[in-house]
Specification:
- The complex is a heterodimer.
- By secondary structure, chain A is α+β, with helices and mostly antiparallel strands.
- Chain A contains seven helices and 19 strands.
- In chain A, strands 1, 2, 3, 4, 5, 6, 7, 8, 9, 10, 11, 12, 13 and 14 form a 14-stranded mixed beta sheet that branches. A three-stranded mixed beta sheet of chain A has the order 16-19-18, covered by helices on one side.
- In chain A, strand 13 and strand 14 form a beta hairpin.
- In chain A, helix 1 crosses helix 2 and helix 1 packs parallel to helix 3.
- By secondary structure, chain B is mainly alpha-helical.
- Chain B has nine helices and no strands.
- In chain B, helix 2 runs parallel beside helix 4.
- The chains are: A alpha+beta, B mainly alpha.
- The interface between A and B is large, with 34 and 37 residues.
Chain lengths: 303, 187
């Protein structure tokens, strides 16, 4: 009874008699009926001022996540394939192999583009609790939806990255010597678990952590990194040796490249190579280093 | 560097709060005050009371910080702390003459079939409109109306205060209500 009167009060629909009843039952200490209605009201009130818009946004993000997942799973072409590896212990695992790319959409609408040989895991049941937790290995470009109430937390071997809503590239291959994080937008807090260093990064900062020591080095305002370039079909290099460039090409295209004159491999290269056109990429290398390529299946020899 | 706290998890903030960290309280305030305010406003239907509730709730949270359990979530805690404040606020509203006027006004509108679906008037709108109408009233009428409806004084008390007859008070109030009704209808 009190519950109904209270609901009418909330929507300003009480008439004179009901108002009198409501006044009396409020005063007569039987306030338990009011609790559940208040609780519902509290739960339905979001941090944003207009709860209705919030629902539309949430529904939109959820629908988007479903579509993205369908796209990710449905397309079977080698380059954009990802495998839904295990649903055991309710953890979702997205993995790309050599030469594969994929984009994963998370429940809150955040997007993660996975470069080759990368792995992203999260537990959907836990994801929307107080923190948005994912674990990660490999290289990914993260576009994280803003949500001040629920930080987005990435854990990877020896490090933790906390963000509220940003875009950045994280390159954390366990087999590499370094982890690299390049920030495009927003702000992130990077924690090295080994050295307990906590570093705050601002846009266009780049951080490099040594896997072995856990030591961090920060390059402030590194302009024009174009680290996320691979997400739109480009591989960017700045003063990198041919050896490391060929390694990247191998991983990206899932090929084997041999260089007959390994001294050339220490010459450096700056520029971009296509991430989706192997012939063109090899042509550019040939031209820049005056080399000739012989392509034989998945093996490429450079003379 | 100024806002590292915005990156902290809730459980970390609770730990800091328990240790007496004021900035942790500030961060919780910035995360939850808007929600608490709009919730309170829906319940008590008064901006000032809703503001007081937000303020008092965070004050109580601070005062009771040492007895908060580490595994508590903030949302249900704020709900619990604010509950009695909100219920008291609701009582204050429903016992006010102004709310009674509002209910009467709405009943009259319905009885006289003056309402269209899109003409729905809620209490917050009613109050806002009413303030601007009262502001434009002649001096005595305004004084009588404010003492009666906003300060909640009895007619006899108003008569004594303003040194006029009780019947005059009654007349002024009913005239004021009539003006308000007309102006509300012509909005």
């Amino acid at each position: 009874m009190l519950k109904n009167l209270f609901k009418k009060y909330l929507s300003d629909e009480l008439n004179g008699i009901e108002l009198e009843e409501f006044r009396m039952s409020l005063d007569s200490a039987e306030s338990s009926g009011i609790n559940s209605v208040l609780e519902d009201l509290w739960e339905s009130t979001s941090q944003k001022r207009d709860a209705r818009n919030w629902w539309i946004a949430a529904a939109g993000a959820a629908a988007c996540a479903m579509i993205m997942l369908a796209v990710t799973l449905g397309i079977s072409s080698n380059r954009y394939k990802t495998r839904l590896d295990s649903i055991s212990s309710q953890e979702l695992v997205f993995r790309t192999d050599k030469g594969e790319h994929a984009t994963v959409s998370l429940p809150d609408g955040s997007l993660v583009s996975l470069n080759y040989s990368s792995c992203l895991r999260y537990n959907p049941g836990m994801y929307d609790s107080e923190e948005r937790c994912v674990s990660f290995d490999g290289e990914g470009y993260f576009r994280v939806q803003k949500n001040p109430e629920r930080p987005f937390v990435i854990t990877s071997e020896g490090l933790e990255v906390r963000v509220l809503g940003t875009s950045f590239d994280l390159k954390a291959y366990k087999k590499d010597k370094f982890v690299e994080l390049t920030l495009d937008e927003g702000r992130v807090v990077f924690t090295s678990l080994k050295s307990s260093e906590e570093v705050v990064l601002n846009p266009s900062d780049m951080l490099r952590m040594d896997y072995e020591s856990g030591k961090c080095e920060v390059f402030r305002s590194v302009a024009d990194q174009n680290k996320g370039g691979w997400t739109n079909g480009e591989l960017s290099f700045k003063n990198e040796t041919l050896h490391s460039i060929l390694k990247t090409l191998e991983d990206n295209y899932n090929v084997e490249i041999t260089l007959s004159d390994s001294a050339v491999g220490f010459d450096t290269f700056s520029g971009t190579l296509p991430a989706d056109n192997l012939n063109r990429a090899v042509e550019i290398i040939e031209y820049s280093y005056q080399l000739t390529a012989r392509i034989n299946g998945r093996r490429i020899e450079l003379d | 560097m100024k806002n590292l706290y915005s990156l902290y998890s809730e459980s970390k903030l609770i730990t800091l709060l328990k240790n007496g960290d004021r900035d942790a309280l500030g961060e919780l305030y910035s995360r939850y005050s808007v929600r608490l305010y709009s919730y309170s406003l829906k319940a008590v239907k008064d901006e000032n009371t809703a503001q007081d509730i937000v303020h008092d709730t965070f004050l109580k949270l601070w005062e009771s910080r040492t007895s908060i359990k580490s595994d508590t979530s903030i949302s249900p805690l704020l709900f619990t702390i604010s509950k009695n404040l909100v219920i008291n606020g609701i009582k204050k509203t429903v016992h006010s003459r102004l709310y009674e006027d509002f209910v009467t006004y709405k009943s009259e509108m319905e009885r006289d079939k003056r309402v269209e679906a899109e003409d729905y008037v809620d209490y917050l709108f009613f109050k806002k409109k009413l303030h601007s109408i009262v502001f434009g009233m002649p001096q005595t009428q305004k004084e009588v109306f404010i003492l009666s409806r906003i300060k909640g004084m009895k007619n006899q008390e108003i008569a004594d205060e303003l040194n006029i007859k009780e019947q005059t008070v009654k007349n002024k109030i009913s005239m004021a209500l009539k003006v308000i009704r007309e102006k509300l209808d012509n909005r």
